Amino acid sequence: MSTNEFEDSAEIRLAVRGDERALARLLQSNYEILYRYMLKVTMNKALAEDLVQETMLKAIERIGTFKAKSKFSTWLIAIATHLYMDELRRKGREYRSRIDEQALHAIRFDTLLVQEEWPYALDVLAGMQPNARVPILLKYYYGYSYEEIAEWLGIPLGTVKSRLHNGLKLLRKELRLNDQEDIEKK
User: Fold this and answer.
1) Which one-letter DSSP state was computed for residue 69?
2) What gap in Å lies between CA 172 and CA 186, rounded to an integer?
3) Which are the contacts of 172, defined by CB distance < 8 A and separation ≥ 6?
4) What's the rounded Cα separation, in Å, for the pair 43 and 20?
5) What pLDDT is recorded for position 111?
6) Mind listing the pLDDT tens digit for each residue in 125-177?
7) What DSSP state is assigned to residue 186?
8) pTM for the model
9) End-to-end distance of the chain based on CA atoms, in angstroms?
């Protein structure tokens, strides 16, 4: 176990026991991870900021229930994912068309450091419905299991697999079209 993991483990134990400073340090150290995730999921800067704040509040309320079966950041992402899906259910199609350029710019910049293909892939993902975009990001960008995704989204495992299959099919098609366009330009 690395020093950082040990410190996080100690911070978590203190936070679960009610140490407000330890909880504040944990939330602060995980804020950026959570914010970047929500930007990619929502494709909307204002909504991402709101959901991160709401997630932090839920984490403060529920810290006593954290069982440390996963990383603290994973627990926060699960809470944020639940909140986002609940928001989509409440608001319906209103959010589906609210992809903002400021969020896409921030995501593109962030992913330029990760992989060359991701900036264009994220443009394609931005055009997808959230029910396809969220599982793809959780599985292929963050590496979560099918079971975790199903639990967080509150859908059957088969539905997760189906959404991933259909979403990846669309993503591959769009990426192939982009590759064709690049070839034609040369």
Assistant:
1) S
2) 21
3) none
4) 32
5) 47
6) 888 888 888 999 898 888 899 999 998 888 999 999 999 999 888 888 887 77
7) -
8) 0.73
9) 50
Query: Distance between CA 11 and CA 13 in Å, rounded?
Result: 6
**Which among 24, 138, 127 has a CA at the least distance from the CA of 84?**
138
Domain boundaries, the chain: 3-185
Cβ burial of 115 (10 Å; 0-12, 13-18, 19+) is exposed
Give me the half-sphere count of Cα atoms (radius 13 Å) on the Cβ side of residue 104.
13
Q: Given the structure tokens 């970047």, which residue do they identify? A: 36
Number of residues written out for the chain = 186
What pLDDT is stored for residue 45 in this prediction? 87
C-beta separation of 171 from 136 below 8 A: yes
Average pLDDT, the chain: 80
Is the model's pLDDT at 104 over the cut of 90? no
Q: Which residues have CB under 8 Å from 103's CB, separation 6+?
A: 39, 42, 43, 44, 45, 48
